[in-house]
Amino acid sequence: MSGWETNGHTGPSITREHQSHQDMGHTSPRPIQVLLLLLLSGLLFLLSLGSMGLTDRDEGRNAEAGREMFASGDLVTPTFNGELRVAKPVFVYWLMTLSYHLFGVNEFAARAPSALFGVALIVMHYLFLTRLRGSTVGLYGALMLLLNIEILALGRMAITDSVLIFFTTLSLYGFWLGLHEPGRGRHWMWAFYVGMALATLTKGPVGFAVPLITAFLYLTAIRQWPIFWERGAPISGVLLFLILAGPWYAAMFFIHGDAYSSQAKVHTVGRFLAPMEGHGGGWWFYFPVLLLGFYPWSTFLPAALYRAYGSWRKFRTAGDRSHDSLESREPLGSGDGLEWFAGLWVVGVFIFFSLSSTRLPHYIGPLFPACAVLAASFWAQGLKDPSTKGLRGSVHFMMGIGYLLAIGFASAPSLFNQFSGKIVKDFPLAAQFDLGIGPYIGATIIVIAMGLIGYLGLNDNRRDTAFGVAGGALASVFLVAILTVIPGLNRYAIAPPQELAYAAGLNLNPSDQLIAFGSTRPSIAFYARRTVTFIPAGEIDRLRTALSKEGRTMILLPEYFQDALPKEAAEFQPILKRHGYVLLGNQQMVTVPQGSDAASPIPSQAIGH
What we know:
The protein is built from 22 helices and 7 strands. Mean pLDDT is 88; it is low at 1-25, 323-332 and 595-609. Helix 21 (523-528) links the parallel strand 3 (513-517) and strand 4 (533-535). The protein has helices at residues 16-24, 31-46, 58-72, 91-103, 107-133, 135-146, 149-154, 161-180, 189-203, 206-222, 225-231, 234-256, 258-273, 286-293, 301-321, 337-355, 368-384, 391-419, 438-457, 463-507, 523-528, 540-547, and strands spanning 79-80, 83-84, 513-517, 533-535, 553-558, 573-578, 581-585. Helix content is 61%, strand content 5%.
């Protein structure tokens, strides 16, 4: 590796570029930059965080599991709708329980852990890159990691991924520093094991798979396994991992036995071997996900990966020619080693998730910090050396994708109107909904930004300004979506059944029954604050059985399913209607929701939208 000690042997020479990397190492962070990142990430992650209802299915399940843990005080066994939930481990539910204590049981509290860990991820990424590459590259990298759709979206959702990404990134940054920092810097390696343990408590085996795959590939590529055995304390590290992650898993197995282990196997090994809940896709699935999820910076990745690979090949070729023993060198983390590390992180994790049979866009989130390292290093190199190979092509690539996205945004309203009939099951009033002016504003912003990026990014003297234009455009489009499009979708598509569920929960005693028929959204249980009998539209016999129970019962369903109700529901009268959903009851509602936009009780003959 260029810049390593060679113990008297002839090795690859230290180029001026590599020496500059060394000179930039251990740079102190700039407080003004940290403050800027805190403010910007806080704005984008926290703005209107609780104004939208929980999306289904994952947000609804996770938020309700956290609520039930909060309500029961049982910090070991996660449940959803009163039943054992093992799809995800416990750590996020602990965070939600704490958040509910601080902020109350609401959407903001459910999402706050993801948002706060998103902010922490950006700051950690900045501190790491600044330490190794200087504050300029650190700021570029942090902004690239923040200003992309995937990280922003994950940081605003009540799911496990934002927390997972933080801990897998902490683990791998600890691995890098522990391997390369001289002297007492080896103690950073403990973060490798702590991060893996907490990531495993957050989302199961993927929490240790991502760091181990990356570390294995990197140590193999640079032939530095002896250094890891010396500095990595693998035996003590594994013990630390087991001490942190093991007790909860052991407690679950001890308490629930096969009920836990069999379900856990389905949600880990089973998810990898076969598609779950229809979440499949071809081997190519993650290519467009990465391109669009990390856009605009994803357009730098092909050239950045090629550059890192070329540098590694030169190093290996030079080492082989000199017959130098690579294993005898002590790595100092200089030269292009960080880019090699990030490249293997991207490639290894990308292939791992592509091999999995169950595929979802957010699964590859743990490789985004590595993408930001590669993209920031490539961009910074391009600013120093305008002849950097692939730089102009990357700018053209960014513009091309941007113009295609602008066309997509401008076409979104007409496409939505054309295909709205296909989503009436979950969005009964889809045909009457209008996306409004937001998509057109977004398209206009993108077109203007791409024009400026072409003018500035292809000009050697003005190129640095193109970064601000690209980042500003992404942030602006994101804010436009939050402020103009999301409120309408929430009001007409997401909130209606949740508002009815809240009203039902206020009026039902624990011994009463709430049935969700036809639309089985998990978030209904969160808003009702009680167990719900979920019955799909085709299971009429189950509905008959449920209706045969004595006592007070309410049925929440899309209006168009009313005609499918069996005769046993004939005595049920409409209590509330809300944008295509209706709440039926065999008794009148007593308590009216106060201080909210929930529907109010009105005579059935006058019920409307």
